[in-house]
Amino acid sequence: MLVLPLLACAAAVLMLQGPEARRRALHWALLVLATLILVAASKIAFYGWGTGVRRWNLTCFSGHAVLAWLTWPCLLMLTVPMRHPKARILACVAGAAIAMVVAWSRVELGAHPVSEVVAGSVLGLAATLVAVRMLRPLALGRGAFVVGLPVLVLALWLGQAGSVRVPSERWFAKAGMWLSGNETAVDRGAWRRRSH
User: Fold this and answer.
1) Chain centroid to CA 92: how far?
2) Is 176 helix (H, G, I), strand (E, B) or coil?
3) pTM of the prediction?
4) pLDDT of 179-190, one tens digit each?
5) Can you say whether residue 188 is alpha, beta or left, with left for phi > 0 and alpha for psi between -120 and 50 degrees?
6) Span 75-102, pLDDT tens digits
């Protein structure tokens, strides 16, 4: 609910900075989209066909881990002007630290086993390394305010409205059932028990 609008706002601000920035921002957006499609495909494949590695308890990429990696290193780097290259590196490292904390929180909350968080982190980090290289000559400049304001408003609204959750897992399960022709989605517990 927060990071996708944040990424969209940042890409939009960069696209207003001229043809080269527009090209790089568009490539960044496509990279994010392709990475998220891989996450969705891994979840749909599990719910529909039970794909995964039982020995590692690995069914999919952790979407939160992937999104954290896709978001924070790049965005924090982009908020620092290009005339401060060392500060940009530190901002990127700080973003990586945030991504690691978010990823590990999925294990602590019981949302994913370690294997899925590691898989999501590897995928997210790989995409982020490409994105950082792609976005290195860009900065949000005064546009950082334009990026942050809508997200701040959204965060305040979500805080007032209570916990708003997007039922993405249910959507993935329904897509897996529809594509596989199964009447029910694969259950993780039953899937794990088959290995014993």
Assistant:
1) 16
2) helix
3) 0.85
4) 999 989 988 877
5) alpha
6) 999 999 999 999 999 999 999 999 999 9
What is the three-class DSSP state of 118? helix
DSSP annotation of 61: -
User: What per-residue string of b and e applies to 21-47 under the rule 16 or more CB within 10 Å gives b?
Assistant: beebbeebbebbeebbeebbebbbbbb
What DSSP character marks residue 57?
Answer: T
| Contact present, 72 and 103 (Cβ < 8 Å) | no
CB contact at 8 A, 21 and 134: no
Residue holding tokens 């809508």? 150
Q: Is 184 helix (H, G, I), strand (E, B) or coil?
A: coil
Number of Cβ atoms within 10 Å of the Cβ of 64? 21
Q: State the Cα–Cα distance between residues 92 and 102, nearest whole angstrom.
A: 15
The Cα diameter of the chain in Å comes to 58
161: which residues sit within 8 A by CB, 6+ positions away? none
* SS3 sequence of 126-140: HHHHHHHHHHCCCCC
Distance CA 192, CA 195 (A): 6
56 contacts: CB under 8 Å, gap ≥ 6: 115
